[in-house]
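Hi all, posting the design record for the shared folder.

TITLE: backbone redesign
STEP: 1 of 1
STRUCTURE INPUT:
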């Protein structure tokens, strides 16, 4: 790519935690267990859903995809961040930065549309319960996930192309711990106001369109729940949506604050702090929010004990490895 006068930037230097030089080893000790716990929790969730036939429903299919997405999402950013906390030279190549941004945006945008698909799933389950399995068949669920990934891929490709076709030959110091949009735009030699508008508009579409679909779904859900005759029925119906609403609030709250702004409103220290929350804490809490609030999932976890015991004793596992103890005669 042809650039103007000056030295072409071939790598970027991360300065995200430079103000906490004396605490970086302590941060490593704090973040590593959280990251490993996130990986372990998501692995348990996905494996439990795969093994337990009682959880082979659309809601848990989307939950398994969400857990896989969270795992990949953290894998793009956190390992590099952990290495940099212990390294003297915290650099990433120009191409590596572009790949990290694209992958991060692809997973993040797909995540937004996946949450919209999960909102639609809750709408069908509550407003059309008799036709739930018909309307949310396996093909429909796979199609919704594929559409979410296609939208995420397209938007990530456009934004990454716009950002990395800008000239970079002034500064290569990113005041962040990964290649996010705002810090990379900040070190570009120059860019037009139009490029900023394009990026902000695409980010807005990723947030506004799925969120609007979720709001429409929940307007119909609340309307249907209010018509339930019993208080217990209304409570049970709403409790199936509570976990999704919590995750939606966290995801769209953080994402809106970070991405619906122009370069002039960028604050490196504040944004880095919020980025820690949605790259480490949010992927940790989301699986816990879904699993710990769900009785079906919690009741499926004891099946792991039976499976582990059978394997350790070299005994044949029962035909349904996730048969609950109460079901065994």
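Okay, here is what came back for every position:
SEQUENCE:
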């Amino acid at each position: 790519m042809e650039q103007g006068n000056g030295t072409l930037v071939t790598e970027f230097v991360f300065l995200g935690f430079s103000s906490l030089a004396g605490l970086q080893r302590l941060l490593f000790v704090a973040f590593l267990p959280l990251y490993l716990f996130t990986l372990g929790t998501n692995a348990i969730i996905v494996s439990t859903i795969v093994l337990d036939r009682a959880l082979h429903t659309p809601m848990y299919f989307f939950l398994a995809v969400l857990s896989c997405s969270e795992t990949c999402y953290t894998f793009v950013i956190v390992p590099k961040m952990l290495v940099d906390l212990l390294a003297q030279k915290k650099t990433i190549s120009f191409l590596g930065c572009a790949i990290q941004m694209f992958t991060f945006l692809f997973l993040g945008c797909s995540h937004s549309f996946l949450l919209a698909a999960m909102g639609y799933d809750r709408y069908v389950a509550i407003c059309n319960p008799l036709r739930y399995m018909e309307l949310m068949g396996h093909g429909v669920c796979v199609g919704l996930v594929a559409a979410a990934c296609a939208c995420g891929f397209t938007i990530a490709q456009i934004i990454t192309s716009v950002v990395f076709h800008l000239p970079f030959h002034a500064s290569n110091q990113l005041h962040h711990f990964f290649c996010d949009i705002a810090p990379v735009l900040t070190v570009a030699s120059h860019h037009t106001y139009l490029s900023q508008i394009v990026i902000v508009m695409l980010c807005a579409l990723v947030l506004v369109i799925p969120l609007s679909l979720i709001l429409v779904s929940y307007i119909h859900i609340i309307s249907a729940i209010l018509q339930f005759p019993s208080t217990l029925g209304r409570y049970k119906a709403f409790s199936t949506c509570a976990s999704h609403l919590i995750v939606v609030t966290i995801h769209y709250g953080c994402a809106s604050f970070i991405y619906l702004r122009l370069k002039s409103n960028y604050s490196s220290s504040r944004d880095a702090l919020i980025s820690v929350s949605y790259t480490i804490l949010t992927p940790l809490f989301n699986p816990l929010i879904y699993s710990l609030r769900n009785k079906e999932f919690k009741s499926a976890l004891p099946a792991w004990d039976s499976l582990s015991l059978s394997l350790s004793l070299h005994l044949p596992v029962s035909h349904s490895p996730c048969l609950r103890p109460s079901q065994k005669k």
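COMMENT: Strands lie at 11-14, 91-93, 173-174.
Let me know if anyone wants the other runs.
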